[in-house]
Structure formats: C-alpha cells, structure tokens
Amino acid sequence: MQDAFLRRQKDRLMSPMAGQAFAAIHPNTISVIALFIGLGSVVAILAQMYWVGLILWALNRIMDGLDGVVARVHQKQSDFGGYLDLFLDFIIYLTVPIAFMVTLPTMTNLWAGLFLISSYVLNSISWTTLAALLEKRQRHTVNRLTSMEMPTGLIEGAETIVFYTIFYLLPSYLAIFFTAMAILVVFTASQRVWWAYRHLN
To answer: What are the pLDDT digits (tens) for 160-176?
Structure first.
C-alpha cells in the first residue's frame, strides 16, 4: 500500500550508496547475496536465535532494495533481473514462516501458517495472471514497481516487512499474526480480482 511512496524515499537514500562502489557488481549478484543472507535468517530461526534472524532479515531487505537501485543507477536493468529479484524474494517469504512453523510446531501455529501460505498462493495467482493479461493488452502504468504490471493492494512489500519483523519480535503470538496477515493478504487478492472485474470486462 505504501510501496510507491517508499520506493521514492529508498531510491533517494540508497542512490549515493550505489555509486562507484557498486559499479562493478551486477545487480543480479546482489539479489543472490540477499537470498543467502535471508536463508541465514531462516537457519537462525531454526536455531531459535530470533534476534540474529531479525538482523539477517533486515540485511536481506536492505540488499533487496539495493539491487534495484544499483540496476537503475548503472543502467543495468533487465527483465530477467526483475524476474530473478521477485523469485528470490518469494523463496524468503515462504521459508521464513515455514521455519517458524518447524521451530514452534503447535497446532495453532501450523494451521495459521498453512492459512498464511495458502493466502500467498491466492495472492500470487491474483496478480501474476492479471499482470500477464495487462501485458497482453499493452496496458502500462506510469509508476510500475516491478518488472510486471501489478495493481496496488493493501499488503505489499512494506507491510510484509512489518509483519515479518513482528514474527521475529513476538514468536509467542505467531498464530495471531500469521492469521492476521493471511486475512489481509486474501483481502489484497480480492482487491485485485475486483479491479480485474471492473477493468477487464
């Protein structure tokens, strides 16, 4: 919901960081490094080292923001880079809650975790299919945030960061926050279905 505004702020803050120091580093390399940092966070969760996991999660998000800035600053943008960035993001988005489910395997956590992951599937279908249809119709927005067209919704990148941070900080309340996020993600998917109904008929 806040991604368009926050992307402008991110670009303003990170563009100086993406100068000569990153001129020789390909953005895709940064994306892969971010993946391994994120997987390190997953390992920390499994070891119940939640503060370490939180720090690595924050570093993962910083690196994930940096790859796009480096690509834009050094004119290294590509469709594959955007695709890779999204694909690797979803590996972390899925493995973090799964790691919590493995570490804290109560029945309520498992059911809430399954609900959350199921909501991701619905949301992914709601926007990837819609993105393909918009590309087919050559409908492009001015402020597109990814390599594909994606109408905005309630839960986007910024809101995901907030929820995941809460997972690390309050693991005892995991089921509550899993469920709350899942409900909001399903609502986001329904927003896109409604948008498609109004604009694609």
So the answer is: 999 999 999 999 999 99
